[in-house]
Design brief:
With 138 residues, the protein is mainly beta. It has one helix and eleven strands, in the order E-E-E-H-E-E-E-E-E-E-E-E. Bound molecules: zinc ion (ZN) (2 copies). The site of one zinc ion has 9 residues, from loops.
Amino acid sequence: MSEPYSGGCACGAIRYETSSEPVVETHCQCRDCQRRSGTGHASYLVFAPRADVRITGATTTWRVAGDSGNEKIHAFCPTCGTPVSLAFSAMPDLIAIHAASLDDPSRFKPRAVTYNARAYAWDPMDPGLQVFPTMPPG
Ligand SMILES: [Zn+2]
Ligand SMILES: [Zn+2]
C-alpha cells in the first residue's frame, strides 16, 4: 500500500483523499477537456469505486455530453474555479481526479492518451504512451 493520494483546488476550499490506487492514468485530448483546461488536453487519475475518494468542501457541478455522447459531470471549486473531479453517468462507479490537483503531481504516471484524433500539433504527447484515437474499446 502506498501513501494516500490527496489534493484539492487552488484556493484550498475543496480537498480530497483516497487510499485506493488509480485504475487508469491518462491524458485526454477531447474537445471538452481542451475547452475546460484551456490547453491541449487534461490529465486524469481514475479511481474506483467512486466512494473511496472522499471529497470535502462544496463543489459546483456542470453536466455536459462528451465526444462519446455520454454525460460527464464536472465538479469544480465555486471560488477559484479549479476543476477537481469528473464523473460519468454511464460509469457511475468511476471518478477521475485532475492530475495537477494532487498535492504531489509527480505521482501521476500516465499510460495512455484518449481522443488523440482531436489533438493539435502544438500539443504533442510522449510517444511511449498507448494512443487511442477516441476512447479505448470496452
Ligand atoms: Zn478553490
Ligand atoms: Zn476528454
